[in-house]
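Q: My labmate handed me this sequence with no annotations at all. I'd like to see what the chain might look like in three dimensions before we decide whether it's worth expressing. Could you predict it?
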Amino acid sequence: MTRLPTIADAVATHARLTPAKRGARDSRRSLSYADWHARASKLGAGLLGLGLRKGDRVGVVAYNSLEWLEMYVAMARAGLVVVPVNFRLSGAEMAYILRDAEVAALIAGPEFCATLDGIRTELNLSERAHVVIADQAGAGWTRYEDVVQAGSAAHPFEPVGAEDMCALMYTSGTTGRPKGVIRRHGGSTLIALATALEMGFTRDDTALLVMPLCHANSLYFGTTFIHMGGSIIVDDRRSFDPEALLATLAQERVTFTSLVPTHYIMVLALPDEVKRRHDVGSVGKLMISSAPARRDTKLAILDHFRNGQLYELYGSTEAGWVTLLRPDEQLSKLGSVGRE
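A: Here is what I predict for the chain of 340 residues:
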């Protein structure tokens, strides 16, 4: 386990072997693997410069953006632990998670600063430990980009191994408070490699991540594509737009995306003339998960995405994917979520 590479190791390798290749982008900017490695290293060093130490936990509350991918890699580089917080929670719910996780710092999108300011006294963090992903920082907040620029890409980081924590993710059942789930670098790497082997992903693939990056789905598939050296596109829209999804799939020649049944139903409900506008022939693999999918929905998905293989997944925050229904069993095993 100790020799398994982290996502920071993977980005460093791709930066050396394919430095100019696009690693990731959102609607605002794009990162080559060389840029991704440099910025993540600087961000990791900048966070340590705020007084954080290896093993400290950093809460993150933000909508989807390229910064999420920078942060995951930066914290892997620095040995920090990401605590992704669902942005749909109330201030009181966020406060419980952040207290329970014993976070030493916060990174937030500007939309959430007011909510977090309202619970600031409950967290007892230093003022320097509040970082905002915005061009301007309000009182008591430090700009994300200033933290990046304060760090050195050549910082001598402590070694990070397979048994070190990479994330503390919170999950709730039907009763009780959210529980923290420890994710370690070695386990995350093994899930990524198993996913790539099972689904046949390579460095030539391009993924569109639609699900929130605070959620296990996008984290696990994002980690897979980082290890494989593929390209990742982050859907940073605030709400799901089915036609915009088709446009992105077509324009970026996306080969994989993961959606819930409702997303697919919204896409399929578009007028035929709208759907015909966007060539989705590049999409070779599709994931459907998080809720049961009807036979007619599956047939319509396969009809529209003519080159797509459909996979159905049952997974958990604790274990990653648990069972998988392969493409050749989609219609013969209706009601099943696959095999272990």
